[in-house]
Amino acid sequence: MSATGKPRKPIHPDTPTTRAWQTGRRIYVRAGYHSQLNRQLVELGTHWDPNHRARWIGTTKREAVTALVLAAETRIREIEAVKQAGRWIVLPYGAAHIHRRLRETNAIFCKHTKAWAVRTDTAYAEIAAMVEAWNIDLELERVARQETRRLYYEEQRLERRRAEAVHSARLREKAIVDSGRTLLGGDILHLTEVTRRFHTKATALATARDVGEVMRLDDGCRALVVGSEVHFTNEIDAYDCRHPDMPVDAHWHFSYDLLLIEPTEEELAEETGRAMAGIDADELHALMTAAARLTAATAEDRWTPTPEDTLTGEIVAGTGFRGMVPAGRLMLTRDGRVIWQHPGFHPEYIRSEGLTADPTLVQRLRDALAPGARTRVVPGTVPVQYTVRTHDHPPAPAPDPQ
To answer: What whole-number distance in Å separates Cα of residue 97 and Cα of residue 100?
Structure first.
């Protein structure tokens, strides 16, 4: 039925009434606005009917209209046949010559898939080869651009490294001149210090050693810092950056470039004092160990009261990092007796005490007390501190064990 309620009559057996029909003395045809059929109908003199949304013309033009509609149906079937053949070409962006060739071969563009259906196998093979050559050229251009970019950035990195090397060399020369120290010669040494302390970048840079600073190495040598760098390692990268005696955790690296220098007279005297203090600490440690054995200490959970005015001197041992835990007390009385007392061990802490007048042990303790009050540290996994007290002298501060 038409919009006016009148029945639709087909104008040809091969033409569906949804495309063209006759109502009364009019023939109606529906066609896309930009289609070839619509242009031909306009040239034929048809009129637009907004109610039917189709073009109409009188029945006197039946043959001409029928011929146009049949030709349009034929073109539609041909187009569908070409699409069903599967000879699709996706036009690369910017390939104007391929687009012209598709036009020349009357290829069909599908606005839904954005691809072109080629009509013949020969044209398809030709255009497919053109597309492949275009893609190869694009790939070669992309690789060339990527290589050019890589070389550019590599040159930039090398330039920065050269500039950094020149800047570091200038800082190194300035640090050497400003220090006024004499170099021992040799290559630049590299030292890395690692810490798990919390730092921001600013506090880490402030904590790092300054260029030009003189530092003492573990072997007692002196070195001049001529380069300094701070680097942070997060929890993930820490698995690939393992350090002995350190858990896998985020940490900071303080990297230094060092040059060995000749020590001054004051530094030599300091090293001599450190060596003598180390020997003294070892002697105190051996004395305390021997006293625990020679006094035949027994665990009775009590100590004999020993007034301070009855003592010539004493050595008090303590262990720990944050706070000292008592680890023993060795006393020499004025009447020549040696008393050893120990507070016991975790978790019972049962006190023990020993007493002896062995002349050898008494003389060793007298010799240890003779230099006067002092404090010595035996470094190790758990450092041990020995504090020597005499009746006349308070204990001296402990030197740095490092």
So the answer is: 5
